[in-house]
Structure formats: C-alpha cells, structure tokens
Amino acid sequence: MKSPPAPPGAPESTFDDKATGLPALKTWPAVYLFVFAAFVVSVLLLVALDKLFS
Amino acid sequence: MSALDYLVLFGTMLGIAAYGIWRTRGQQGLSAYLKGSGTTGWVTIGLSVMATQASAITFISTPGQGYEDGLGFVQNYFGMPLALILVAAVFLPIFRRWNVYTAYEFLGRRFDTKTRLLGAGLFLLQRGLGAGITIYAPAIILSTVFGWPLELTIILSGLLVIIYTVTGGNEAVSVTQKYQILVIFGGMVAALAVLLTRLSGHLAFTDALRLAGTFHKLNAVDFSPDLRRRYTFWSGLFGGLCLSLSYFGTDQSQVQRYISGASLREGRLGLMFNAVCKIPMQFLILLLGVLMFVFYQFETPPVFFNQSSWKAAAEHDAGQFRAVEQKFADAGAQKEQAIRAWLDARRLRDPAAETAASAQALAAQRQSEAVRAEARAALREADVHAQTNDGDYVFITFILAELPHGVIGLLVAAFFAAALSSKAAELSALGSTTSVDFYRHLLKRDAGDAHYVKASRWFTAMWGVVALGFALFAHLQENLIQAVNIVGSVFYGVVLGLFLVAFFVKWVRGTAVFFAAVLAQELVFCLYFTLNISYLWYNLIGCAACVLFSLLIQALDFKKKGAKEPV
C-alpha cells in the first residue's frame, strides 16, 4: 500500500529520515520490533505477577 | 493544607506558566504559533505527548481504580504500543510530507472540503466536551476535599491555562508540559515512596503483593472473550488499538505535538518513547492504588471516601450513618485479625493455617464490601442526587491523611500540572483547528500571517471560555477517567476510519467517505444506546463501519456511473 503522494510544492525533508541515530537500533524497523518486543514482555510480566502472587 | 503546601502549589504552577510565557515572548508567524519553532527534540515531544494524554484524572482517578478493581485497567493501554508504531511509520511521515497545520487539512487535500470539515467538526465536538471534563475533574475533587469554592477553582485554573496558551501558542504548550510532567513524576514518586515506607511497618513488600493477590487485585490480564466485560486482553488490544490509533493519529491535540518536531526522527522517537513507557507507567499508578488497598487493611479507611458528601448526608440521620460506620469498623477489625493470622502462618510456614486465614480474610472483605454497598444505599436514600462512586477520592484521602506537609502541596501541584498540561494542548488544538480548517479555509483565505495568529489567539481563548462554561455546569456519574474515554470512543472510531481510507484506499473519493462516516457515526450512536458491551469496542465498530461503508458506497457509485474501479 502506497501513501498518497505529496502535493506539488510541498517541501522535501532536509533530514536523513532513514537514520535513527540510536547506537544499537540503526533502522526504523528494528526500533519498531524493539517496541513490540517490549510490549510482549510487559504483558508476560503482568501475567507472571498474577501467577506468582495469587 | 499548610502555608508550605500553598507555597509549593502556587510557586510551581505560576512559575511554570510564567516561564512558558517568557520563553515564547515576541513569537511571530502562523507556523511558529501553531507548530512551534521547528527545533523541538524528541525528549520534549515524548514528554509533551505523554503530558497531553495524562490529564489530572489519570493521576487522581487511576489509583482509585487500582484500589477498587486491581490492575485490570492496564489492559486499556494494550493497543497503544502497536498504534504508536503505525502512527510513527505511516501517519507522521505523511503529515510532514504534506506540511499541514492540522490533521484535517490533510483530509481536505486528499478528499474534499466537506470531508475535511466533517473530520474537524467531529474533533471539535468530542474534544470540546472532553476539554470541559479535563478542567472539571480535578476541580470537583480538590474543591470537595479542601473546601475550596468549586467555581473559583475552575475559573482560576482555567484562566491560568488560557493566558499562557493564548500568549505563547504551541511552543508554550510544549515548553510548559516538559516541566509539568516532571512535577507530576516527582509527586507520584514521592507518594509511592511514602506508601512503601508506611507499608514496611506492617509487612514486607512481597507479603503485600501476596496479600493483594489473595484479594484478586493483581489480575492484570483477562483473556475472557466476553464482550460485556469492560477490560479484557482482547478489548484492550483491538478496541484499544483503534482508540489509540485514532487518538494519536487523528486527534489534533496529539498531532500538533509531534508534527512540531525538528525532524521526522525527533517525532518518531518521541512517539516510541511513549510506546515503551506508557504501560509500565499505568501499571505503577495502578499498583499505587493496589498498595493503598493493602495499606488500608491495617489502617481503618473511611466507609465512604468522599467524606464531604458522607458528612453532609449524615446530618439527615446521624444514628443510621454512625451504625453503618460501626459495622464497617467491625468488619475491618475482623479482616485485620485474619490478615495478621495469615502473616503469622506465612512466617511459620504453615500452609493449612495460611489457607484458613486467607479464607477468613476474604469472607471479612466480602462483609466490608457489603457494608460499603449499604453505605452507598444510605447516601442515595438521604440525597437522590448524591454521587455514590467514591473511587476518585481514594488517593486524595490517602494524600491528606498520610503525606507530610510540602509533599501534599507537591501532589496537589502535580494534579493541577496534569490538568493544565492536557488542557493547554486541547485548547491549542481546538484553536488551531477552528482557525485553519474553518476560518482560513471558509471565511478569510487571503489574509497575512499576523491576522491568522490573531484569529488563532481569539479562537483559543473562545474555546477556553467554552470549556470553562462546560466545566461550571458539568455533572458526571461515571468514574472520571472512564467518562473521558467513553466520550472519545463514541467518536474516535469513525474519524480513524476516515484517515485509514485516506491513507490506504486510493480509489475511494470524498463524497463516498463523507456519507460513509455520517452513516457509521449514526450506527455507533444507535449501538451505544442499545448494546451492553465494553465502550472500547465502539472504536473498532466505528472504524470498521466507516471503512466498509466507504468501499460499498464508492463501489455502488462506480457501478451507477459505469466507470471502471481503479485497482
């Protein structure tokens, strides 16, 4: 799926949008994967907390 | 509150507001006013996005939710990380590439004027209502507890936020939010530290968690497929995904925060910061409530946490109310005795005694809950208009009774900081949407920047006054944080549907999506008043209906005209 094209005259980005500037996560898909993994770990920890202390 | 508390409260609030005004002095130009200076880094964006979402009710009501229902409310946020990934990957680059002031400006360029106005109108309607709630919520609670005049509290806090938002625009909102959220974090950490210290006098932290687990307060994740349950893993994941996608991707109060970044990278990192931090943050706030529940097993809590309301009703029949209080104290004493027996059994590693004591504690808890229900019934009998949900008063009761002076002022400052930060973002977004999408687009197209900045200031002030008016006349029955989410859920799904069609279905045109959105919104209204399902599902229903109706109407239109559908 492609996003809609930019309108005529819209300014082009002058920044390097592909670089994340992060030491370990150098591409955006890697950042998104990290965030998703953090979410999964959060849910697992919440389930574990309930199982451990109930 | 002591003089020290008032000093901390007013010093913090006025200091941050004055700094925001000073930092943005001499600001000129529409872009600078609506988007900021274009130099905002990801930390400021991340904190600003967080401060916009986390209003005062997040910090006042959520611990009460934890106290009453445990950790289950955290599931409400399960869709958020996924939504933020989508916003960062798809929505944000498009908004930046099209260089828009508002999200609805994009709808106008992609479809047509009527669709733009529909999106902007739905935003103004639901956010205008929400803006009233965000200012009313902390005011009603704090004025009830401290005996401040409600109207004066609403007007003073409302005027403060109007002044710095109107003066400094979007930049002032971001700058002040950064410091306001730091005050909030400081206050919440201080409250948690005091609570843990007080708890350690009664039991170890692991025992506190075990006790909370015994009372089913740690059931954070519920995989039940029952649609009627308000918070489940599934409603949080799918309904929450749509709610968050709509809120972060299409609500101007959030869009305005991250499109102001110095680059796409800064905006994306600010969003990812929230995607990682939000669930742990909500968990900690709910855990604070759960630990307060444990704390109140050793200290007698009031039978009804809204003591002002309780005392006022007690004047009608003091004997009956005193009897209820006595029954509650007796049930509490029984419970404490069972809990202490349970702790002894754990220390002696006697599983049989532990099981017996926990069963006794649970029975005493059911007795306490029955007395609390009796108390609510007595309250309703004395005054049919009495607010019988006291969850919003749990945390503030704890703060006043247990925290030292100075820290009380810091916590109250944190509540006001949260109220002002989300309020400022809402006002700024309401002002810019009215100015850009209605005034500039429909009424006055060719004026200069200075004129539009002036108009934006007037519209921001106007929305501030509208929100103040709504807050002055509001009466809410639901727990406050849920009220905000319910209002949002009724509208958000349809708006999200509009944007998803705009981004992903290129062959659908303006007229089809416009009528689809109107039909979908009517469907959501009908279902809301007839079905008994968790409100989170309305986000999914509204979004799916809008997308589906768009495809159908456009397909029918092509068929009628005999045109070939583009692929």
Describe this structure in words.
The complex is a heterodimer of chains A (54) and B (567). By secondary structure, chain A is mainly α. Chain A has a domain at 22-54. Chain A is 48% helix and 0% strand. Chain A contains 1 helix and no strands. Chain A has one helix at residues 28-53. Mean pLDDT of chain A is 78; it is low at 8-15. Chain B is mainly α. Chain B has 2 domains: 3-295 and 399-561, Sodium/glucose cotransporter (Up-down Bundle), CATH 1.20.1730.10; 311-386. In chain B, helix 3 crosses helix 12, helix 7 (113-146) packs antiparallel against helix 17 and helix 19 (480-504) runs antiparallel to helix 20 (510-530).
Q: What is the oligomer described by this structure?
A: heterodimer
**Proportion in helices of chain B:** over 70%
Provide the gyration radius of chain A in Å: 19 Å
Largest interface, Cβ cutoff 8 Å: A-B, 32 and 46 residues
Report the biggest beta sheet of chain B as strand number plus sense, adding barrel if it closes.
Answer: none
Radius of gyration of chain B: 25 Å
Helix content percent band of chain A: 40-55%
Mean residue pLDDT of chain B: 87
What's the mean pLDDT score of chain A? Answer: 78
Total of DSSP H or I helical runs spanning 4+ residues of chain A: 1
Structural class of chain A: mainly alpha
Low-pLDDT stretches of chain A are 8-15
Number of strands of chain A: 0
Number of helices of chain B: 21
Q: Quick one: overall form of chain A?
A: rod-shaped
Brief descriptors of the model:
heterodimer, A: 54 residues, mainly alpha, B: 567 residues, Sodium/glucose cotransporter, 2 domains, 21 helices, 78% helix, 0% strand, globular
